[in-house]
Design brief:
Blueprint: H1 10-26, H2 42-71, H3 82-87
């Protein structure tokens, strides 16, 4: 069922789950359910920045590179192609 705010992509949910496990290993206070809201520390900010960097390096950059490689390979890309649709959102 789609909520009022829209659907939550499964890849993003798994990505957030693994980031939570990673953060809980280094600083458990930063991911506690009721007390982590408003929690700030230098190590938490550093770890959150690294989770963004690692997500970009492992998921976003390879996908963009793959699309650019296919797009400029000279082969025609059909508009109904999976590559085209994965790059458009």
């Amino acid at each position: 069922m789609i909520s009022a705010t829209g659907a939550y992509p499964p890849l993003t949910a798994y990505q957030n789950y693994f980031h939570g496990i990673f953060l809980r290993h280094f600083e458990p206070e930063s991911v506690l359910l009721y007390t982590s809201r408003g929690y700030e520390s230098y190590i938490r900010k550093l770890l959150m920045s690294w989770t963004v960097f690692s997500s970009d390096a492992l998921i976003d950059f390879p996908a963009v590179l793959y699309f650019i490689t296919l797009y400029y390979s000279g082969k025609p890309i059909k508009e109904k192609s999976c590559v085209w649709h994965s790059a458009m959102p």
